[in-house]
Write a structure and sequence with these properties.
With about 210 residues, the chain is of the alpha+beta class. Helices cover about 30% and strands about 25% of the residues.
Length: about 210
């Protein structure tokens, strides 16, 4: 759905924004129907996690007329890496570049705080995820090169996500990008990423 007359703003979340996060997650999750287990599609971020992230300045919202229509949540898994735990845009506001802008704000925050990397995880077989990360310059990290924190995250996700019908786990992919700024300038867009499903390693200019 296009909203050419609407103006969007990316801002740190306010306490009053938190009740609007779960409906965004659930609406965005429906885009993964057929790609992720139903239990994942019904998952929302615990309120206490949102409250902690909001208090510590690790939760951003995309606002339309001062109402959240997307968000990005960061956790600190390692001293020198920020993990993009969840990023969602409501489908009614998709293809407006809001996902890209949210990722950009997270990376700016990481650079300001001298954090060396931004990480996230993704299912390789969801058709719009890997192309998005490829446009951002992501390259897959070999399992042997994963940091201990990312390896633990991968194992935890495999425990949390139910087995798919063929008896195996969904195929997780992790990657690294050195071309983030270029991809943002070229207008890469993002509709939906999911909380329990995503991860990769991203290096941003000036964040070494």
């Amino acid at each position: 759905m296009n909203h050419p007359s609407r103006r969007y703003e990316i801002a740190l979340a306010r306490p009053g924004d938190l009740p609007r996060i779960a409906p965004i997650e659930l609406a965005a999750a429906r885009l993964l129907a057929g790609h992720a287990p139903e239990v994942v599609l019904k998952e929302v971020t615990p309120v206490h996690d949102l409250q902690a992230a909001q208090r510590h300045g690790r939760l951003w919202v995309a606002l339309s007329n001062d109402v959240p229509v997307g968000f990005a949540l960061v956790e600190l898994l390692e001293p020198d890496a920020a993990h993009l735990e969840e990023i969602d845009v409501h489908p009614d506001h998709g293809r407006q570049g809001l996902g890209t802008r949210l990722v950009g704000r997270v990376c700016q925050w990481a650079e300001t705080h001298r954090i060396g990397a931004v990480t996230l995880t993704t299912f390789r077989d969801v058709p719009w995820n890997m192309p998005f990360y490829a446009r951002l310059g992501f390259e897959e990290i070999a399992p042997a090169a994963l940091t201990p924190a990312l390896r633990e995250l991968r194992d935890r996700l495999r425990e949390a996500v139910p087995l798919v019908s063929d008896g195996g786990w969904p195929d997780l992919s992790m990657g690294m990008s050195d071309d983030y700024a270029v991809a943002i300038e070229e207008g890469a867009t993002l509709i939906r990423l999911g909380r329990a499903l995503f991860g990769a390693r991203l290096s941003t200019p000036g964040v070494q």
